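To make this tangible, this section ends with a sequence with its structure tokens:
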Amino acid sequence: MKIGVYGGSFNPCHLMHKQIVEVLLDRNIFDRIIILPTGNFYKKSNLLKGEERKRMLELMFENHPRVIISDYEFKNNLICTYRSLDYLQNLYKGDKLYFILGSDNLLHFDTWKRYEYILDTYNLLVIERKNVDAKELLKKYQGYQGDIEWMDLDLLDIQSSTIREKIFTGNLESVKNCLDERVFSYIKTKGLYSKTYQERPTEKFISDEEFLNHYNMDDYEKMSVTTDITLFSVSDIQQKNYRKKNTKSFSILLVKRETAPFMNKWCIPGGFLSLDEKLLDCAKRVLFTEANIDHVYLNQLHTFSDIDRDIRGRVLSVAYLGLIDKAQIEGDLKSKAAFFDLSFQEKEDSLIIQFQNGDTIFTCSVKKKVDAYGIVSYEELENEIFAFDHLKVIATSLDYLKNHIEKQDMIYHLLPPSFTLKELQLVYEAILGKKLIDSVFRRSIQSQVIPTEEFKKDGGHRPSRLYKYKWLREE
């Protein structure tokens, strides 16, 4: 079956809209047409509520069995054509969908959200409008998988904006010949678009109990939520020659996927939020079940919400940044989990990250983007290793950690309860990826630590005093 999807504000619907639908059906261009009024947040002056616009469309097409009026967009507060087409295609599986639009809309079609996806997945029927050459415009959109057809109809010259202006200035009768008689009567009876018109509540006052008796969650779209954790650690790299100073490696916990999607790809620990748990509880559960790690510092970092970030459907990810001293981990890691040492090379607009665990070494890269408000985000450049958008999550976590370790207390979760100042400095250097000046570093952290009466003997070096972070003073 060939189905036309006719979208617009229909504010109000008028005889040109009716003419387009009737001509397309009379000529059997489509087997049926779905009319899709825009969501209530569409940027249009004096936009009536979707319920009113839908009612006028129902009146105009009440004797047209091949016309369907859909409330999908305003019911879900959407202004996304591609999402509406996906929804309708799911309802009409196997049918061929064409989005109907005027050639004037084609002028700015490349500004529509995911317009290339629409052209590859669905089809267009472009209707020629005055002063807009559809044939010339269509050359710009050749080469996509969807069909593009066009028609030159001798259309009535009617505009909704003109109708609204005339009604508002008290000239309702002057637009009578532009409207279906039932629509005209409806506008007149309810005073729509007039100076005195005020939107009224769509329903009388009812109690919450009465509301819930008629409320159906299945009427609305749903999405899933996951928590994903970037768990970092810093550990010693022992030198064979005791005269050489120890260094520290900066590492991240990765998990190898054992099931589809992305089977055998690496990812950070993550899992779906259950209905009976909080986000933080979910993150803790995920770390324990996937890696056998418990009692970890976790800080909610960022919500990742790209539309197509998960091939299974619409999934939001709430990312947590975790820090742990690997020496404090009790028990063995799960076989699918492993810590990978990190090294990175930062350029002006990109970040190259190397991951290493024994003989397993791989490199990925991301592009760094900064918007007009200074907000940093990342885009994958090279990634054959990670599932989902987890490389971007890792890059975001690294950026946050490097920019906040000197301002927050989080770094002390990477250390044992007592430590030398040199050990603390090595942790900073491992994360920042650069050598710090000893004297400058010690001055910068002197207000955060307190000395103990204990000392640590390190190889052939003289004993070093141990320190504690101040918040451990009473422990």
